[in-house]
Specification:
The structure holds 2 protein chains of 2 kinds. Chain A is α+β, with helices and mostly antiparallel strands. Helices cover 25% and strands 29% of the residues of chain A. The chains are: A alpha+beta, B alpha+beta. Chain A: Residues 41-165, 169-230 form the Exoribonuclease phosphorolytic domain.
Chain lengths: 255, 303
């Protein structure tokens, strides 16, 4: 049980005596999600811009237990080693706090997230508007409660807007888990641990364009269509929440 | 209107913001002459300070501290360790201070800021030497198992006086800490006793039911001041720290005893009188911080 990622390998976090929770019987018609949500119901989203004063733009997002902060710096000078570029560069990084996960220091497992964040945002940003320079997007996951990457992506696009970086549209991201014959939207950590497959879409609703889509696990074509519809619909709803957050912030600063 | 300096004539024609950027030192000195700082504070005044306990659900104890814009999130996770043979009755404490790239434009991913390592060490020294935590309280079974408390402090927004905010969040996280109830099985492995288990399965006797809170004695509180010429500025912002480089941090405990004092060089040499002034200002600040901490704790108990 010793945690290998922990700074000192001689310590371990105590667990409960019971075995790890078994996958619930999802065929059971009475099965409900651990937080009582409907299968097609997202967690309530809390969004705020201007979380970090030292950054050019920033946002805080809280979806249930998933809490993230994203700061945007720049446009600023590119690293010296970089070649000359007519268009701007985007640089993304996601890190986890050591206490983000139930076992200390496990959050650093997600090395691929930084490049996925980059790919999801790249298509939305008008890179021509800041030639020769770099915009840095840094995310910190304070608490990991499931669907971390989609929350970070939505939060990052809000932070970019707060920094005044030109974009074609806000990027909203939502994921869906496939559990047997059920599709559940915006899964929590526990649900992600026993999913059969997962699908994530990052979407620019007002242009009707998808910037990134990932599918993992076992899916039938029929299910993929169904899940995509679900995601796109949820993204559009999330976008309205995001834009009202920006409007509120703009309204407050005008007063 | 102002003192005569090379930039004085320019200042009449220039916008305030431009003057602030081009001649930061003159900009500040002119304010200081009038006994006020650009953000409206007096020299000795600290910024508004707030504390919220229990900000992180996945940790055993946590706190969010804000001094002005400087924001610190501290969280404690309890893990189990085998005590050393020299000190069989003591647990241990590991303190780490992190500056993730989100907190400041000067930090880049993969390149930790030098200042983070310095503050990490100072915090660790201050907390361990203050005697705030009795490591014997972290013992579970003498010589067999004990708690290792991992305290991680994340700077979410860096706007000066990082050490003060970090120490405050650390102290608050410890006062919020709830140690999980555990039992030890025959092989010496530690398990968390959940609510259902308490209903009385044999072999699950909790070993620490009455030791869930740590007794904090001699809590340390700190105040950082900037020294510039004859001025002493309490609780500097990042802008002030970048312009006037000599800082002095005084740490006093709740009985007003000196715990640590850091003056990491800098161009200004402090007179003993300046030192005494800083200590006196810290005394005042300790009272404020004690009040803020107690209010945060009682807010928590009401909820």
């Amino acid at each position: 049980m010793a945690t290998k990622a922990s700074a000192s390998p001689s310590t371990y976090s105590p667990s409960t005596r019971r075995r790890k929770q078994e996958r619930p019987n999802i065929k059971d018609p009475d099965w409900v999600r651990s937080d009582g949500r409907g299968f097609h119901q997202c967690r309530p989203a809390f969004l705020r811009t201007g979380a970090v004063n030292a950054a050019a733009g920033s946002a805080y997002a809280e979806f249930g237990n998933t809490k993230v902060i994203v700061s945007v710096f720049g446009p600023r000078e590119s690293k010296k080693a970089m070649m000359y570029s007519d268009i701007g560069r985007l640089n993304c990084n996601i890190s986890y706090t050591t206490f983000a996960t139930s076992i200390r220091g496990q959050g650093s497992d997600h090395k691929e997230y930084s490049s996925m964040l980059h790919k999801a945002l790249e298509g939305a940003i008008i890179l021509e508007s800041f030639p020769k320079t770099t915009v840095d997007v840094f995310a910190l996951v304070l608490e990991s409660g499931g669907s971390d990457l989609p929350v970070v992506i939505s939060c990052a696009s809000l932070a970019l807007a707060d920094a005044g970086i030109m974009m074609y549209d806000l990027v909203a991201a939502v994921s869906v888990s496939c559990l047997g014959t059920n599709l559940i939207i915006d899964p929590v950590l526990e649900e992600e641990s026993y999913q059969d497959g997962s699908l994530m879409i990052t979407f620019m609703p007002s242009r009707n364009e998808v910037t990134q889509m990932t599918i993992t696990g076992e899916w039938s074509t029929q299910k993929i269509h169904e899940a995509m519809e679900l995601c796109l619909d949820a993204c559009s709803k999330l976008r309205t929440i995001m834009s009202s957050c920006l409007k509120e912030a703009a309204f407050a600063s005008n007063e | 209107m102002g003192p005569s300096s090379s930039s004085a004539d320019l200042s009449a024609e220039m916008e305030v913001d431009a003057f602030r950027r081009l001649f930061p030192l003159q900009f500040y000195e002119r304010h200081l002459l009038e006994s006020i700082r650009p953000d409206g504070r007096t020299h000795q005044q600290a910024r508004d300070t707030t504390l919220a306990l229990g900000a992180v659900a996945s940790a055993d104890g946590s706190a969010l501290a804000k001094i002005g814009c400087t924001t610190m999130l501290a969280a404690i996770k309890m893990e189990v360790m085998t005590p050393t043979t020299d000190l069989p009755d003591e647990g241990n404490l590991t303190i780490e201070f992190h500056m993730p790239p989100i907190c400041s434009p000067i930090v880049r991913p993969g390149k930790p800021a030098d200042i983070a390592a310095v503050i990490s060490k100072e915090l660790s020294d201050t907390i361990l030497s203050s005697g705030m935590i009795n490591l014997k309280e972290l013992s579970l079974v003498s010589g067999k198992t004990a708690w290792m408390a991992y305290l991680d402090i994340y700077c979410l927004d860096a706007d000066g006086a990082l050490f003060d905010a970090a120490l405050l969040s650390a102290v608050a996280a410890f006062s919020h800490l709830q140690i999980p109830v555990v039992s030890v099985n025959d092989e010496g492995k530690v398990f968390i006793v959940s609510e259902e288990d308490k209903a009385g399965k044999p072999g699950n006797e909790p070993v620490n039911i009455d030791k869930r809170k740590l007794v904090l004695s001699n809590i340390p509180y700190s105040l950082t001041c900037l020294l510039h010429k004859n001025y002493i500025l309490a609780d500097p912002t990042a802008e002030e720290e970048s312009i006037m480089e000599t800082s002095l941090t005084v740490v006093l405990n709740s009985s007003r005893q000196l715990v640590s004092l850091y003056k990491p060089g800098g161009p200004v040499l402090a007179y003993t009188s300046a030192l005494q002034d800083c200590v006196a200002m810290t005394m005042q600040r300790v009272k404020e911080l004690q009040k803020i901490l107690n209010e945060a704790i009682s807010d928590m108990e009401v909820v």
